[in-house]
Amino acid sequence: MNEEEKKEEDIEGLAVIETYGCQMNEHDSEKLAGVLKEKGYKLIEDTEKADVIILNTCCIRENAEVKVHGKIGYLKQYKRENPDLIIGICGCMMQQEGMAEKIKDKHPHVDIVFGTHNIHEFSQLLDAAEEESETIIDIWGEKEELIPDLPTRRETDHKAWVTIIYGCNNFCTYCIVPYVRGREKSRSSIDIVDEIKELADDGVKEVTLLGQNVNSYGYDLDRKIDFADLLEELDQIEGIERIRYMTSHPRDFTTKLIKTIADSNKVCEHFHLPIQSGSSRILEKMNRGYTQEEYLALVEEIRSYIPQAAITTDFIVGFPGERDEDFAETLKLVEEVEFDMAYTFKYSQRSGTPAAEMEGQIEEDVKQKRLQKLMDIQSDISAQKNKKLLGKTVKVLGDGESKNNPERQTGRTRTNKIVVFNSDKDLTGKLINVKINKASSWTLTGDLVK
Ligand code: 5AD
Ligand code: SF4
């Protein structure tokens, strides 16, 4: 964008943020967007037209990193055409040892590199990049205090993410998160309640509480409060219709928490409980802190209090040392639990994690075959579960136009299932009833009930 165009639109320039990875990163990107907006930038999608491009990266699996490296290389041509373009790379991948220097050496066209612990410095870094031609690297190690609040620019008006706890203390042996996001740090419940009240005043209907392990909420605070207590408090906030949370650890899911959710009005009946493997032997090697039997008992307990609960999960196949018998246990468990949905991943070796050094790393073709088998079985189960809703009327919170089919609208049930329906009115943020007439593994389709 040239100076004249900027003046005409009365903006500083055009900016793109590309986000990789989980909701935590998406939420960080909302903060980056807030900073850009305050500085007068207009956010767009098209990297070709941008004056500032920020990549917020993920490193949970190798393919996430490969994508980012590819994208940075691709951006080089834009920088050649427009030397004033500012390219910034941030997020989890940058917190890995040596990564920032590697980016600087390999991709000198990058202007700023920063990490997850100092996104509040983004504004100053942008200013500095305008003056400096060399890559500016500013990565912080972990600090005691929490990241200061930043202005947020949300993608949607009716839904919002709210971080309740940062970091993770679990050290599952495959996982890089505790190394790049640091130790658990809970936000004060007063701040959380205030933030959600403000969101409610702004018209937000649904909040999703974020944390790597939300069940650990409050353990590090002076004031005695745990996740169940927090949910109970949040349930009282007027204007909010739905409360969700991500992600919870099966080991820390207490009876008190299940009862609190069962008694609440707003906390949704959706339990995302990553199991990772159905084999207790592998679970132990993963340092998950529960056995297959304990997980099954938890599912039973949840269903005894909340029969209509949807239960979803994550699986990793091909963890080091996973034998055919272990994988068979996973398949058996999948059939037994009947998850509503599962995210399935091939184990990815992350350097610096204990599992990366373990013996018995599994060949790629074995991982691929196991993944396919698991996905096929789960997909049938998801379809069967969704078919049970045929002919039923479900409460849906409208999310607006369907991305794949702009003629139609989408929304979600409290159990987090996607529902597609026809409407001539925009029903974003509205609670509506939809009668389901078609069900597949991923979506439900239905008609509005007046
Ligand atoms: N390889 C594959 N999947 C992983 N996950 C975390 N680390 C790895 C890894 N090294 C998956 C887990 C987790 C989800 C967010 O990502 O299933 O629950
Ligand atoms: Fe990673 Fe385990 Fe922490 Fe989840 S609980 S972020 S899988 S270490």
UniProtKB/TrEMBL annotation:
Residues 387-450 form the TRAM domain. Its main location: cytoplasm. It is found in: Cytoplasm. [4Fe-4S] cluster 1 binds at C22, C58, C92. SUPFAM superfamilies: Radical SAM enzymes. Its cofactor is [4Fe-4S] cluster. Keywords: 4Fe-4S, Cytoplasm, Iron, Iron-sulfur, Metal-binding, S-adenosyl-L-methionine, Transferase, tRNA processing. [4Fe-4S] cluster 2 binds at C168, C172, C175. Its EC number is 2.8.4.3. InterPro entries: Elp3/MiaA/NifB-like_rSAM, Methylthiotransferase, Methylthiotransferase_CS, Methylthiotransferase_N, Methylthiotransferase_N_sf, MiaB_methiolase, rSAM, rSAM_horseshoe. GO terms for molecular function: 4 iron, 4 sulfur cluster binding; metal ion binding; tRNA-2-methylthio-N(6)-dimethylallyladenosine(37) synthase activity. Pfam families: Radical_SAM, TRAM, UPF0004. Belongs to the methylthiotransferase family. MiaB subfamily. HAMAP family: tRNA_metthiotr_MiaB. NCBIfam families: miaB-methiolase, MiaB/RimO family radical SAM methylthiotransferase. Catalyzes the methylthiolation of N6-(dimethylallyl)adenosine (i(6)A), leading to the formation of 2-methylthio-N6-(dimethylallyl)adenosine (ms(2)i(6)A) at position 37 in tRNAs that read codons beginning with uridine. This is tRNA-2-methylthio-N(6)-dimethylallyladenosine synthase.
